Amino acid sequence: MEQDSYRAVLTRVPRKIENRRIWIHFGIDAGLWLAIAALRGGGFWAQLGIAILFSAFCFRSFGMMHDCVHRATSSNRVWNDILGLAYGIFCFLPFRGWRDLHLDHHAWTGNVEKD
Q: Which of 23, 37, 29 is nearest to 56 (CA)?
């Protein structure tokens, strides 16, 4: 799909951002951290559980950062950037650099030489 066609599709798709989704995401993340804290100091199986829970948190962090790159987390640009920076820390990715690279990827999707 060419960029002009893609932009035409985007104008027809409603982009409603729900704050409730953000709070649910925060709640799940808080639950993961509480479970990690509860398992701290345990034996092998507790440490394995912590590793799995922390992996899930990092995966969720990447999803949130990705949504922030696309300005889909909040209608407020500053809030998107703050959340993107915060969650980028847990992904071990610099938010602004990854944002620029990722948006370039979307700008050239379908162009084998530039994507």
A: 29
Residues 6+ apart with CB under 8 A from 105: 115
Q: Please state, in angstroms and rounded to a whole number, the distance separating the CA atoms of residues 52 and 55.
A: 5
Q: Which residue has the tokens 């951290």?
A: 33
CB-CB contact of 65 with 91 (8 Å): yes
pLDDT digits (tens, 9 = 90+) for 6-41: 677 767 776 667 778 888 999 999 999 999 999 999
Nearest-angstrom CA–CA distance, 39 and 60 = 20
Could you tell me if residue 106 is left (phi over 0), alpha (psi between -120 and 50 degrees) or otherwise beta? alpha
Rg (C-alpha) for the chain, rounded Å, is: 18
Q: What is each CA distance from 61 to 16, 32, 82, 114, in whole angstroms?
A: 21, 12, 13, 28
Task: Please give the model's pTM, rounded to 2 decimal places.
Answer: 0.74
- Phi first, then psi, for residue 81 (nearest 5°) are -65, -40
